Amino acid sequence: MEQFIKEIRAAVDGGAWILALAGMLALPDICAAIESPNGKTSGQKYRAWVERWLSKKYPMVDPADLYKMRCSFLHEGEIRSSSGHPIVFTGTDPNHLFHNNLVNGAINLDLPTFCNDLTAAVGLWQAEKVNDPTYQDNVKKLIQWHPQGRAPYISEIPVLS
Fold it and tell me: pLDDT at position 138, please?
């Protein structure tokens, strides 16, 4: 999980907002899959994860809204919510911070703040789950860099697998 978080934060810091948002919206899915006995996620598991780990900080963002945003963004390249409220992300403007509010009927989230809050929620989740046998089994399956390759497929060069 650390590599996912590191790369999402690097995307935010580098201004790669679309990639950062894709990674952030996928994190609850990844966490839900890791804590699931079958290692799979679902819409219900995604929403339950958001409800448990993010909803207190984001009462205006219903877990169903975040799931709809995840689906519409990752599969169609657009942002929609289930509530009908448009969702607007702001970036880094040192003179203005619009976050976790309604602006002219749109849910407004500051992307760097949302990233920090979501990755912090993942950190809290990890701390609670780290000794859980299901977590320990499933976290090993995450995609990762293998610096010396992955025998018997490719050896002696880094591969992502």
Answer: 95
CA angle 148, 22, 141 (to 5 degrees): 40
Predicted TM-score (pTM) of the model is 0.89
pLDDT at 24 over 90: yes
**Any idea what DSSP says for residue 96?**
B
Q: What tokens does 158 get? A: 């880094």
For residue 52, what are its two tokens? Answer: 């448990």
Cβ contacts of residue 48 below 8 Å, gap of 6+? Answer: 32, 63
Exposure letters 133-154 (e unless 16+ CB within 10 A, then b)? eebeebbeeeeeeeeeeeeeee
Sign of CA dihedral 16, 59, 62, 106: negative
Helix axis angle for 2-13 and 111-129, nearest 10°, is 170
Sign of the four-CA dihedral 56, 25, 121, 106: negative
Distances in whole angstroms, Cα of residue 125 to Cα of each of 50, 79, 101, 106: 11, 26, 25, 29
Residues 6+ apart with CB under 8 A from 74: 22, 25, 26
